Amino acid sequence: MISLRARGDQGQTILIYVVVVSGLLFMAFAYFAFAQAAAARNGAQSAADASALAAAQEVRDEMTDGFVNALVQGGDWADWLQGDQNVPGTGGAAAALLAGANDATLDRIAPTTIRGYPAFEASITTRFTVGKSILPVTSGRHAKAHAIAVIEPRCRVTPSGDSKKEIKFDCDDDQQWTIDPKKLDDIELPKAKDLFAVHLAE
User: Model's pTM, two decimal places?
Assistant: First the structure.
């Protein structure tokens, strides 16, 4: 015969087991919810990084065009190379395009400066949500993120007194350029990536 005490102990054991298993299940679901949120944040940050870099690269191309035009017109080509000229644009179109490609919406692109160099801050909101979990609030929540990309000159310039004469300047990777403004059609001009580096601000 099973005693009443044994039955009582068995009932307590089952109750403890149910409580422990329930706690473990809750912790597992909570961990999954945090993992969902982390994945959403990572996706948002990737979209923000891509948008900021796209904006900076678009403006870098415009700065390179400004440099070439200054060569043709006898303007301040050295100022373009050193990033001292007014930034010609914001790169908003390129930033929006890259945000969309990463399933996000560009909320804002703002020109700024980092260590005196042109920079662009992109703020985005994901089109996807964190997803359903044990935390009901996450089901309709969109992740937000921002990033800043900076344009840094890669060349060291000592401009001559007459910009219509042959000009010379050195760039990173031991690149040396000698350009005759009167013979631009006969030479290979430096590309945007030769003149300026684009990277995310630290």
Answer: 0.75
